[in-house]
Specification:
ADP-ribosylation fold, 6 helices, 3-stranded antiparallel beta sheet, 32% helix, 187 residues, Arc Repressor Mutant, subunit A
Length: 187
């Protein structure tokens, strides 16, 4: 694959997949804190047909608009979104934003309002800083999209911590139904 912007985006998605979900299957050892060797990621990407280099992997990681990656020395990790059993140490926020948002296909609304937001196959529920970010996330999973507003004060009353994974992404172990309000429904 060439080096165009579409290829960089595809490579970024594959990097995320390797670091979050299926790295070991492709020879990328991911340690208990989510770290993998950049060289292993480069080799796996090359086997997938990308013209990967350590420089390009670092560039993609450091310029990612969602802050998905962290680089330290010769290692890289995804900051959030794992289904692999990792334990990234996040500090609970003392004062999270009063409202965070979650976008989801409308077909999920009934279950969410009964059971709350649960992490599913991931380690945490992902929450967005803005309605627009939540919409973009929800749209990737189906339409019409419903935007849910999460009251972080309510989470605190339940003893549920909120973590900041990047400038745009916040995490919580779960969100009870009484902390959720339907903000908007597409269509």
């Amino acid at each position: 694959m060439g080096g165009g912007e579409d290829d960089r985006e595809r490579m970024s998605k594959k990097m995320a997949g390797l670091l979050r979900h299926y790295g070991p299957k492709y020879g990328v050892a991911v340690d208990e804190e989510g770290w993998a060797r950049i060289g292993d990621v480069v080799r796996a990407l090359r086997r997938m047909g990308f013209r990967a280099s350590e420089r390009l992997v670092r560039e993609i990681a450091l310029s990612d608009p969602k802050g998905r990656y962290e680089v330290r020395g010769d290692k890289i990790r995804a900051r959030y979104g794992h289904s692999l059993p990792v334990r990234i140490r996040y500090e609970p926020l003392e004062s999270p934003p009063p409202r965070l948002y979650h976008g989801t296909p409308a077909r999920n609304l009934g279950s969410i309002m009964r059971r709350g937001l649960l992490p599913g196959k991931r380690l945490y529920v992902h929450l967005s800083a803005t309605r627009e970010q939540a919409y973009e996330t929800g749209r990737r999973h189906g339409r019409p999209v419903v935007i849910l507003s999460v009251d972080t004060g309510c989470l605190a009353r339940h003893g549920i911590p909120v973590y900041k994974a990047s400038e745009q992404v916040y995490l919580a172990p779960r969100v009870p139904p009484d902390c959720i309000r339907v903000e908007s429904l597409e269509g």
